[in-house]
Amino acid sequence: MIRLLKRIIYKIKETNWKYKLQGSDVRIQGEIITPLNNHITIKKSTIYVDYNSTIILHEGVRLEGIGLWVTNGGRVEIGAHSFLERSSNATKPEYIVNSGVLRVADHTKLACQRLWIRFGSSIEVGQYTNVNPGSEIRADEKVIIGSYCQLSYNLRIWDTNTHCIYSPEKRNRLTRDYFPRFGYEYERPRTAPVVIGDGTWIGERASILKGTTLDENVIVGYNTTVAGKHIPRQKTVVQGIELKII
Fold this sequence. Notes:
The protein has 246 residues and is mainly beta. The protein has helices spanning 2-14, 168-178, and strands at 25-28, 31-33, 41-43, 46-49, 54-57, 62-64, 67-71, 75-78, 83-85, 94-98, 101-104, 109-110, 114-117, 122-125, 130-131, 136-139, 142-145, 150-151, 156-158, 194-196, 201-202, 207-209, 213-214, 219-220, 225-227, 230-231, 236-237.
């Protein structure tokens, strides 16, 4: 009974009641750093920062309709007047920072469906960059996105295989050992950094996969996959399409 009472008291202390009126559940066990004027908007969102983690929100930051979890020593810094938001027709986006770093510069808008940082990795996004809804950014090592980038809908930006490739025997054993939580990763898969230069435009449904570097002002066409390539500045990349008329 005493333990339950302590848990209730801790949860009350952790909860930021100011944002309850805006339909948000904000629980900060670790450290939150905000400007003195505190011109921060958090609406219809779930924010959780555990004991060893930190979130820094600069002036004019807006978090709306998202879920943000910062755990295991994770660190999030959102620059001035940047937005993390949900599009009108999407399910609630997930921003998961597990033992890594998310750093977003000023005047940037992220409307990702999922952003996922694991294994102490990092994602850095420059200023005046826009990431449209339905997109997913995953980092198990490092993803760098420059400034003044326009990233379209339903993109995949991964620096990782996302899963380790084990022998059938080991995969079966892990499945048994961790049932019903099978399929989760407990060690880092193969990775290689992704770097997207300033001024890059990426078309809808494109995939930028591990080991890719796009220099400044590159254009990536619709439904194009780029994996492990270095694309020089001011080049355009499109997927080969062969049209046959029979």
